[in-house]
Write a structure and sequence with these properties.
Elements: E1 4-8, H1 12-23, E2 27-32, H2 48-51, E3 53-56, E4 59-63, H3 67-75, E5 79-83, H4 88-93, E6 97-100, E7 117-121, E8 126-127, E9 133-135, E10 146-147, E11 150-151, E12 170-172, E13 177-181, E14 188-189, E15 194-199, E16 205-209, E17 214-219, E18 225-226, E19 231-236, H5 250-267
Parallel strand pairs: 1-2, 1-6, 2-5, 4-5, 6-7, 7-9
Antiparallel strand pairs: 3-4, 8-11, 9-10, 12-19, 13-15, 13-18, 14-17, 15-16, 17-19
Helix pairs in contact: 1-5
Amino acid sequence: MENIIIVRGAGDLSSAVMHKLNKCGFKVLALEVDKPLAIRRKVSFCEAVYEKEAMVENVYCKLCKNTYEIYDALKEGKIALAVDPLGKYIEKLKPKIVIDAILAKKNIGTSKNMAPLTIALGPGFCAGKDVDVVIETMRGHNLGKIIYKGYALENTGIPGNINGMSKERVVYSKHIGVITNLVKIGDIVKKNQTIAYIKDDSEKNHEVRASIDGVLRGIIKNKTNIINKLKILDIDPRIDEVENCYTISDKARCIAGSVLEVVISYYNNKI
């Protein structure tokens, strides 16, 4: 099958990219780890790892176990997803384009020799050296900037500002254990409300509390094994915009558009 694009990672930003490519007629294969840790699970195709199939804004993604299932899913117009953290399908299928959308803030194994065109999202990659193109993911004037030489801005560790809220929006774990969620994505939560427990090895439950009032935009999957300082939930202070939990964000759409521009430029021999 021609024109398969392989995307490493299937979290919310990656899923926006794949959604855009799929809607424009490209065949997309996502490669994921066996236990994804996405927060914005309602807009992340990596949920297919657990649920066998996932849907984001009327585009479907199907978990596949082999090449035959991948081709079948692509023929159905779906995004195919395989558990393949090492990228073995890249060597097997030899795509023209590989996109690193893991958002690990560092390069954990993608290189220019993987495909004729390699694209990476965010910091940790040097365009022209590690990959061909880097896309800026930092909110601000340069969000979505296409970089052909050099690096994206370094990770600040501070979430983007929404209604005056930045680092307050996101909660990181302070304990190691298994999480039990008491609320679900889309629920309205109040500051200091207990929204989950993390049970440690000694069977002690540690409360996870809401950091602000707002809509629970994302929370890590129930019964996930949690490590210390792991991002586990995201609260949107815009209480009247619950629908945002189930749709691709403005940031993600911007990044997806930039990736599409690079892909089309490549096929039109502009790069």
